[in-house]
Design goal:
InterPro entries: Galk_glycosyltransferase, GalKase_N, GHMP_kinase_C_sf, GHMP_kinase_L-arabinokinase, GHMP_kinase_N_dom, Ribosomal_Su5_D2-typ_SF, Ribsml_uS5_D2-typ_fold_subgr
Radius of gyration: 31 Å
Keywords: ATP-binding, Nucleotide-binding
Number of strands: 32
Protein name: L-arabinokinase
Mean pLDDT: 85
Pfam family, one: GHMP_kinases_N
Strand content: 15-25%
Largest sheet: 9 strands, mixed
GO molecular function: ATP binding
Length: 985
């Protein structure tokens, strides 16, 4: 359409201005809001040059004017989607590096020249970082218009991808700091790089046609319920079926390809259809959250059924706004893909959206931009952008912090938390001398069985349970804005029945690490941080189901059947869905429990709910391994303070706490050792992570302030080793996320098993073909035969390895070459990729020598106290660390932490004072995560640990999490059975 100039707006223009408007390549939402701002600038008589990668029709369908110039250039890629609902964090950073970082100098030169050539009066960015820097270099003022910035988004991605991308985030933040001020849109994220902010209303595209006109053009009666399906293009592989919609409904599909065929109740919209008109003519929308969809849904009071997007860090802020105005209903991805839409649509049309705020943000922003270009100064210069740069990267790390352990949260982020109701999983509180907090929940509950053992985190968890009923009955405004996971938890339990509570800690890998799957002796310490699980079983007829689960049961037309419902606290900070539910019958395949392969596929359907495999997988393992059948419904609340991705076994603590709770609620008597072995099956076969058993064993069998000594063949607990009173262990987190499901850990494990098969083959050939040395006696021949059937690498001594096998092992080998020669590496939980090359010698050597180091470490712990004892213990940690690196499992962050320990250990001051820190090593699966440090148990050591923490922050921008202290394992804790007290009449 053609814009008709308004005399009122034109008169406001003091002179003809030229705006250069840069648009990020992340989705159409940015382009659509740019259209609205640009429209008002053009109405005022100005030229707008849009720099974009979006299709022309997005702009030309709204603006038909010679003052609009479109320059097709893409200067930043935004976030790369693995699929319609999942962001690929690593791919996003890599693509940004290729498109914006490597060619940066040429981009800057080109943009400076272009800005000069068009004689731009003002550069506007939504929200391209380099545009702000190019403007500054060209001597032109710049302004950003956005609800998020890429330093905020990418900072969290660095947690997954590693520190090598940190400089990218810093560069983005620095570019933004050249911007004069930020025009901030509602639903905003924290944006620390901008020194000044002006808030404006929602930017919303205006309507061209009425609801009646649109429906008439589409041939849809007014009494028909109309759904608009808006996922930014219908993803391939999604099959729409007629039964997905309730009777009397039609669905308009946005962005479908011309070749797709739809059922009769689904209508394909043209690609150039003007979406706002269609949205306003619909009864509700089903799609994914983005600024454009949320703002226009609010503006047109359109109920929005949304599906969570994984790693889309902007989403929680937009979702909070959507739900605040009673306009949003979340659909779980499984129900989206299986067509279980009815309960969500019925819930959506019952909503009463109540947004009454402004929707003229485009006009307001255009006025501010015009005034700025003319020369008005909106910036206060109160804060410099440079002062806030470090916060940009720190924010991403702090998003991954553990519940209840906030550290150095910047003021601007704390404000955002309060404003947007973000919080950590557990409530924080303090006890006074009278124990008032203890009494606050004991007034609500009595402990029928067990003892909380004075653990403050358990007290906190019980307090959170007591608060759930308060939240349920509260009607004041504060309680209405509880986090979504707390809302779900409110209806989880029937308080007339008993609830069972268990606790399982994470673990610090002192010695043993990745040698566990090769049969090594390991020494592990349970840490203070733990996972709590509350569980309740109910007869299906008494189970309080969530609405969509109730609708699913009703649709089957059967009597109530057992359902599993799980709430996970901390989901807002970990990019996962807060709830999970399933019919327990889904675990059955005919008369038998489903296979582990089928279960793995089942939980992989929805990445945002894959976490549920760690919890629900315990039920399937009990069904398959012990023959248990579950006739009752099960409700589970999971709250973990064990930080994820830091190499301290967050997954094991969840598994052990969950299985222990389910066993307690069902009266199953399972030893802590067997709990651990069963939980390893959960991780190996249901989750699909090839871990050893030491994590689960420590979480289940460990004791506070003791090292669990275990030979992993498969899991023989030798006992508990007292930590001498003069020795102390710390864990220092590197800030680099670690996962045993990652490719590095798995490839090293495969290499170790390859090495074992080559050693066995070598021993077999030597003993079978008569090439045994003449001077070898019968014992030597028998030893070769034993090694030919080697079950665990760690049963081979270092001297035998060096004497006979080291030279027989290749440094590396192609997977296909190994399979051709040896057929199989005989590891039940990993699969060889025949196109990949694996390190063999280092991977096989590590567990053989590590087993020896752990034995020596254990013996030294019981030796007489001396500086030599500590020096030797520390040296063993250092040797282990460098052996990890030889396997390819090191990282820049963990190497830096170990070097910092060494610098303090060997400093002149430390040497003169007889030293306090003696050694350090990477832990767990490696490739990041946490470093274990050994030192004297004294105040000076703690001061030096804090010094390392600060020096690491100064070098990297990340303040490490410090693990100190220990707590009992799940077996020692047992379980609590709690019951709500009845009020006296």
């Amino acid at each position: 359409m053609t814009i008709e100039e308004s005399n009122g707006v034109s008169a406001a223009s003091r002179r003809h201005l030229v705006f250069a408007y840069y648009v990020t390549g992340h989705g159409f939402g940015h382009a659509t809001r740019v259209v609205e701002v640009a429209r008002h600038l053009i109405l005022a008589g100005h030229d707008v040059h849009v720099v974009t990668g979006a299709p022309d029709f997005v702009f030309t369908s709204v603006i038909d004017s010679p003052r609009l110039f479109i320059r097709k250039v893409l200067l930043d890629c935004g976030a790369v989607q693995a699929d319609a609902l999942t962001v690929d964090r690593l791919a996003s950073l890599e693509k940004y590096s290729e498109t914006a970082v490597k060619p940066r100098e040429s981009i800057l030169a080109t943009e400076i020249k272009w800005l000069t050539s068009i004689r731009a009066d003002l550069v506007v960015s939504d929200v391209v970082p380099v545009a702000c820097r190019a403007a500054a270099d060209a001597g032109i003022r710049s302004v950003c218009v956005t609800n998020f910035s890429w330093d905020f988004i990418y900072a969290e991605y660095v947690m997954a991808a590693g520190h090598r991308h940190r400089s990218t985030v810093w560069q983005i933040a620095e570019d933004y700091s050249h911007c004069e001020f930020l025009i901030r849109l509602p639903g905003y994220c924290p944006m620390p790089a901008f020194r000044d902010v002006i808030d404006v209303p929602l930017v919303v595209r205006r309507l061209h046609k009425s609801r009646e006109e649109v429906r008439k053009e589409l041939g849809i009666r007014n009494d028909v319920k109309l759904l608009i399906l808006n996922f930014g293009g219908q993803p391939s592989g999604w099959k729409l079926k007629e039964e997905y919609l309730p009777p009397g409904w039609l669905c308009l599909v946005c962005g479908a390809s011309n070749t797709e065929e739809f059922p009769p109740n689904f209508i394909k919209l043209q690609k150039n259809a003007y979406t706002p008109d269609v949205m306003a003519a619909s009864d509700c929308m089903l799609g994914k959250i983005g600024y454009g969809t949320v703002s226009e849904a609010l503006a047109y009071k359109l109920p929005f059924v949304f599906v969570r997007r994984d790693y889309f860090n902007e989403e929680p802020f937009l979702r909070n706004m959507l739900e605040h105005y009673q306009s949003g209903v979340e659909m779980i991805r499984r129900d989206l893909l299986t067509g279980h839409w009815k309960p969500y649509l019925e819930r959506a049309v019952s909503l009463k959206p109540c947004y009454e705020g402004g929707i003229n943000g485009g006009e307001v922003a255009a006025h501010i931009l015009q005034e700025t270009a003319i020369g008005k100064n909106y910036a206060s210069d109160k804060f410099s952008g440079a002062r806030r740069l470090r916060d940009a990267i720190i924010l991403g790390y702090q998003l991954q912090r553990a519940p209840g352990r906030d550290i150095s949260i910047p003021d601007w982020y704390a404000s955002a938390e309060n404003e947007l109701n973000k919080s950590t999983g557990l409530p924080t509180f303090q006890t006074n001398e009278n124990g008032s907090v203890l009494s606050s929940w004991t007034e609500d509950f009595e402990i029928v069985h067990g003892d909380f053992q004075g653990l403050s985190d358990t007290m906190s968890f019980l307090k959170s349970l007591a608060d759930l009923e308060t939240i349920h009955h509260s009607e004041n405004g504060t309680e209405k804005h509880q986090m979504r996971e707390h809302k779900a938890a409110v209806t989880l339990f029937n308080w007339e029945e008993d609830v069972y509570v268990t606790r399982a800690p994470g673990r610090l890998d002192v010695m043993g690490g990745i040698a566990d799957y090769s049969g090594s002796l390991v020494l592990q310490m349970p840490i203070r941080e733990a996972c709590h699980v509350a569980v309740q079983r109910n007869h299906p007829s008494k189970h309080r189901l969530w609405k969509h689960a109730q609708a699913r049961q009703n649709a089957k037309g059967q009597a109530p059947t057992p359902v599993l419902q799980i709430v996970s606290y901390g989901s807002e900070l970990s990019n996962r869905g807060p709830t999970f539910d399933m019919d327990l019958s889904d675990f059955m395949d005919g008369e038998q429990p489903m296979s582990y392969d089928k279960a793995k596929k089942y939980f992989s359907q929805d990445p945002s709910q894959k976490w549920a495999a760690y919890v629900a997988g315990t039920i399937l393992v009990l069904m398959r391994e012990l023959g248990i059948r579950f006739e009752d419904s099960i409700s589970l609340l999971v709250s973990s303070a064990v930080p994820e991705g830091k190499g301290v076994s967050s997954s094991a603590s969840v598994e052990v706490a969950s299985m222990s709770a389910i066993a307690a609620a069902h009266g199953l008597s399972i030893s802590p050792r067997d709990i651990a072995l069963l939980c390893q099956k959960v991780e190996n076969h249901v989750v699909g992570a090839p871990c050893g058993v030491m994590d689960q064993m420590t979480s289940a069998c460990g004791e506070a302030n003791k090292l669990l000594a275990m030979v992993c063949q498969p899991a023989e607990v030798l006992g508990l080793v007292e930590i001498p009173s003069h020795i102390r262990f710390w864990g220092i987190d590197s800030g680099i996320r670690h996962s045993v499901g990652g490719a590095d850990y798995g490839s090293v494990r495969i290499g170790a098993f390859m090495g074992r098969e080559i050693i066995k083959s070598t021993a077999s050939i030597v003993s079978a073909n008569g090439s045994v040395p003449d001077d070898l006696d019968n014992d030597g021949v028998e030893l070769l035969k034993t090694e030919a059937s080697l079950d665990y690498l760690c049963n081979l001594s270092p001297h035998r390895f060096e004497a006979l096998y080291c030279n027989a092992l290749p440094d590396s080998m192609l997977g296909g070459t190994f399979v051709d020669k040896y057929a199989d590496h005989k590891d039940p939980v990993t699969v060889i990729d025949q196109t990949r090359t694996y390190g063999v010698k280092a991977a096989a050597k590590h567990p053989i020598y590590e087993n020896f180091r752990v034995k020596a470490f254990k013996a030294l712990l019981t030796s007489s106290t001396s500086d030599e004892q500590l020096t030797a213990l520390g040296e063993l940690l250092y040797q282990c660390h460098y052996s990890y690196s030889a396997c390819g499992l090191g990282s820049d962050g963990t190497d830096r932490l170990v070097r910092l320990v060494q610098e303090i250990q060997h400093s002149k001051l430390s040497t003169a004072e007889d030293g306090t820190l003696y050694g350090a090593k990477i832990t767990g699966g490696g490739s990041g995560g946490t470093v274990c440090v050994i030192g004297k148990n004294c105040l000076r050591s703690s001061q030096q640990i804090l010094e390392i923490q600060q020096r690491y922050k100064n070098a990297t921008g990340y303040l490490p999490f410090i693990f100190e202290g220990s707590s009992p394992g799940a077996g020692k804790f047992g379980h609590l059975r709690i019951r709500r007290r009845t009020s006296p009449n």
